[in-house]
Each structure stands twice: as structure tokens, then as C-alpha cells.
Amino acid sequence: MGNCFGSSARVDATLSTASEASKFPSKTSNSSAPSSISIPPYSGKNSAESLPTPRSEAEILSSPNVKAFSFNELRNATRNFRPDSLLGEGGFGYVFKGWIDEHTLSAAKPGSGLVIAVKKLKPEGFQGHKEWLTEVNYLGQLHHPNLVKLIGYCFEGDNRLLVYEFMPKGSLENHLFRRGPQPLSWATRMKVAIGAARGLSFLHEAEEQVIYRDFKASNILLDGEFNAKLSDFGLAKAGPTGDRTHVSTQVVGTHGYAAPEYVATGRLTAKSDVYSFGVVLLELLSGRRAVDKTKVGVEQNLVDWAKPYMGDKRRLFRIMDIKLEGQYPQKAAFAAATIASQCLNQDPKLRPRMAEVLAKLEELQAPKGATRHSKADNQVDPVLMSPLKHHLPMNVTPLASPLPANRKASRVR
Questions:
Q1: What is its EC number (predicted)?
Q2: Annotated binding site: which residue ranges?
Q3: Mean pLDDT, to the nearest integer, of 6-10?
Q4: How confident is the model at residue 91 (pLDDT cuts 50, 70, 90)?
Q5: Is residue 292 flagged as an active site residue?
Q6: Considering only CA atoms, which of 25, 7, 43 is closest in space to residue 87?
């Protein structure tokens, strides 16, 4: 289903907007990023590497991995979809917080059992039955620590709902672009990048490749420990098979994240996802949106604005997020910028595979002997000191609030 949260809109063959608000956040969680963060290793293959080719609707909905909820069960779980249970709203409809018994999966009292996020599709929404079914199809079969877990669905009359695990920290988009009590630290940003890279790499390396097709900050959800999980598989597509090098398909996605060759030709490959990853990695470094209409000229497009600085160690600080206040390893920051630049190569054949991107990012985790771009460094070395460094006025926003940021990001469709 395209995006889980926010005000996303998709329009056939045109650019439209979709900045989904934070996903599945809790209304009581604390957004403070830990000062030292470890990334839990993931080894082993997932339980559904081979996706059986095309399945009927009946086969998809009869998956043993997801529960078929009745509408009444979800109504009880969300307290009749009460306004104070609302987590977010978007072009798809609404997302509500609910509770179910972790063993029977039946509705539970608020505050007890398993916390869930229930996505309720608008009958007239942008994301129709096909995308709803695509989401059930993929998340009903694919299981990985860096993919959001689909618990079940409801298909009753005109009602289309999806039930997910609840992600307390919401979406990466909210943490990067909303002012809060504490910005994401460098360690947290790299942890998120590595987790998201693991998710994408898993999809691309599966026996039957899956192309995600809508990788962006609002589709990356964060659990209580800032582990990243990919959500929203409504636009996912099976990769090319046999001798085919690409999949020809209708152009959908989000403006600013979609690979240029895909937008121009409709030819989709895994390298299209790699480009999108490069954009998100650049967002993590800069704290800027992929597309920002509030800025002027070239600064409206993050990639166009940042490219001249990404390969220059002496000028890289000009694109680094000022909310980091210079607290990041210089060598690691330049290495991450280099990885982003490689992912953003105009020639898709020259972009690295996600498995290669993941390996490079993991090498950056807590590098020994890394030189810190600290306040002391700033006083000694004016070349490395960001002239933009200052404290931003912070307006505290409830971390658990997944409400849309009231801005739209263009979508291609």
C-alpha cells in the first residue's frame, strides 16, 4: 500500500506528492538517541527466500503467516477507531493504535497485550485493493528483522485493513525533519542506514528478487532501539527473471527518490532501489529533505545541491546536518558521502549492489582511531569547522505522534 502514514498522493504518469507522516509511533516514547549504539548482527537466511510466482487472491489471503481478522475484532482492538487512538492519516486512509492478546490475537484491553498499528483503507483512497493485496502478498511471505511484521488483515465487505507490529519511534522522516528535543546522533543515523540497507539487500538477494520501488525516509520505521524496518510494500515488484535485465512497468514512486532512468523509461531494476537508498543516505547526512519547495533554486533538490560537495573532504561540512553540531567522525562522514555518491550515479550499471553498500557501511561502524569532528577540532582547524554551526530553536513534538508534517512529497505514477 504505498505509504503507511502521511499525506501521500499518487497520480498516473505525473509527479505528485507523498510525505507520509511518521509511522507507528507511540504517544509516550522518548526520542533521545543513545550516545553509544550497537547494531545487532543478523545472520542466516530468511524463512521465505523463494516467493512462489504469481498467486491468486485466494492463495494470498489464505497465507498461514497472517491472521484474517474480522472487522469487529479490529474495531474492539482500537476502541471503535476512537480519535484518541488515531496515529496518522494519509491518502490511503487512517492508522490507529490498538491492542491484542499476544497468544490468541483477540482484542485486548488498552495498555495490555500486544500493541498494534491498524491501517484502515479509505474506499476512495489513492491506494486501492491491488496495492493492499500486494502488501499482504509480500509481507505475508517475507520475514526479516529489518522488514516490518504484518500480523494480519481484514477483508470484509468494503473494508480493507492491515495489522502491523507497532513501531514506538515512528518513522525516520519525523526524526530527521521535525524539530524535537534531541536530534539523531551520528551513531543513530548510521545504525538506521545499516538496518535499512540490510532490509533492501535481503529483498534484492532473495532467490526470487523483490524490488521495493518506494524506498524513502517515511517508509523506514524505527523500533524502541532505533532498529530500522522497511514498511509499505504496496508498490513492490518482482525483479527480472531469466535473461531479462529489467522489468518494464508503470512509473510509480516518490519524486526526489525515484531513479532518473526509471522515471524516464519505466525500466525497473534493483539499481533503482540503490539510487533511492543514496538519496536517503544523503538525507541522513544533511538533515535535508530530498525535495524542499521552501528553498530556492538548486537547493530545492537535495541531490543537485549536495553533489558538488560530496567528493570534497574540505567542503563536505557544508552539507552536513548542523543539528549534529560537528559531532561526527570526519573520515566516516566522507566515506558515507562517497557511498551515497556511488549510489546516485546517473548510470545504473555503475551503482553498487545493495550487498556491497551494506558491507561498506558496516565497515564504518565504530571505526577504530576515527578522528572526531568536535568542538575542539573546530577551534584548531578552521577548514573543518562548519560556519553554520549553531543551536536551533527546538519545539518539542510528541515523539509518538505520527501525524503528518503537513507537507507533500511528489510521487510519480
A1: 2.7.11.1
A2: 120
A3: 36
A4: low
A5: no
A6: 25
